[in-house]
Amino acid sequence: MPEPVFLNQPAPEPVAQSSRVLPDLRAVDRSEELQSKSLGGSTAPALRTFTISTRLRGRSLVEDVDIAPDEILDLLDTAGRLKRMHHRGEPHTYLPGKTLGMIFQHPSTRTRVSFEAGMAQLGGTAVYLGVNDLQLKRGETVADTAQVLGRYVDAIVARVVRHEHIVELAQFAGVPVINGLSDRNHPTQALADLQTLQERFGSLKGLNLVYFGDGNNVAVSLLLAGAATGVNVTVACPVGYQPPADIVTQANWLAAASGATVTVTDDAEAAAEQADAIYTDVHVSMGQDDSAARAVALAPYKVTRRLMSLAKPEAIFMHCLPMHRDEEVEAAVVDGPQSVVFDQAENRLHAHKALLLQMLC
Ligand code: CP
Ligand code: NVA
Fold first, then answer.
1. Within 10 Å of residue 293's Cβ, how many Cβ atoms?
2. Is the pLDDT of residue 4 over 80?
């Protein structure tokens, strides 16, 4: 009877081929054993006690300001602990029996897969609902969809074409709703980005984060989440592409409370000086169709090696992805040693798991 092999244990070293061609050595041929793996049959793995704040239980994240500054820091702490457990292979299936509904009206690689994989890693289930999967496509209202889904699932993440739809979903679902990107903001992206900054620099307070390009959904969330947590946020963009005025006002209020600063400027070179992190996003976002005019207006805000050289020597380069190499950023920058773009992408997983855990605990 072969020894059982349990999951999460390193596989045994393969038997050297030479033992089979030299019969005199009488080595034991374990090939049959190595080809089998006993699954199940044991009790469920014990889960480590994991203490979290219940302040987000039952709440939604639609606007960045739905989560208070100390709650953001708390989430980052949870995300960091979940990340370490995940890397150590420790089971953390704290949400068995819970279901996440995932409404996506635009394509997604990171947001979709990190929420779906994250829910599985937490012991729950995710149901992906693309544009062709719901009666929304045939005119069922957002409010009716929300009320129905809210009776099946424990939380909803939604990527919507129009921000008002995520607001309406949250209003009618009766379960937590997470904004997985709208034309106004991208709050889960900002959470993962703050986690990346914290990992790189130890703390957020006083960091200089400079965003170049379109004052779009990603810029909005960086402004609000950054200002809330003490990060000095600058947006360098041409006139006509600034973040909405009400967002800048809101960010200024948050910055006043955290001791940070908020700056919107059209002077790219001046903005880069003293930056700890330089960030950019695509010049044409999903759903925008004025690409020719954007390309011309935003070209001077492309992140180049020269721009990076004006920042602090230890500055990092950030991008939410997907990117267009040599359009909003030089390939040499995004593929160079200062780039942390794949750490940001990874942290989507851990930040989302933290959100789900704290909302559904
Ligand atoms: N950054 C981000 O949201 O990527 P996806 O569009 O792939 O989800
Ligand atoms: N601003 C981009 C972000 C993609 C993650 C868009 O909305 O397309």
1. 11
2. no
